[in-house]
Design a protein that fits this description.
The chain is mainly alpha-helical. It is about 40% helix and about 10% strand. It has a two-stranded parallel sheet with strand order 1-2.
């Protein structure tokens, strides 16, 4: 319950700050899914999560970097949370198998 409350609070805070700080400052958030750690650092655990999203893979740090760059280069986007999760957030608990 605490995790869900915190997550909801971050979404609300992002939207509120976007309203308060605009037009000079844009505020957005990134909600990452399973992202691969550096080699040899628990990679097997994250790979079991690959079947939890429609793309059937875990993300890489570059997936987050590209999203940050997209948001930095998008002057008309504010108050948004971008899910970088391979679609894992679409169906919590569902397994897509192989």
């Amino acid at each position: 319950v605490a995790y869900a409350q915190t997550k909801s609070a971050l979404v609300a805070q992002t939207r509120l700050l976007a309203q308060e700080l605009g037009p000079d400052i844009r505020v957005n958030g990134i909600a990452p899914g399973a992202i691969l750690p550096p080699p040899g650092k628990g990679q097997e655990v994250l790979e079991t999560r690959a079947v939890r999203n429609p793309l059937r893979r875990v993300g890489a740090a570059d997936d987050i970097t590209r999203t940050v760059m997209f948001l930095l280069e998008s002057p008309f986007i504010t108050g948004e949370i971008v899910h970088v999760s391979g679609g894992e957030h679409l169906a919590a608990g569902k397994s897509y198998g192989e």
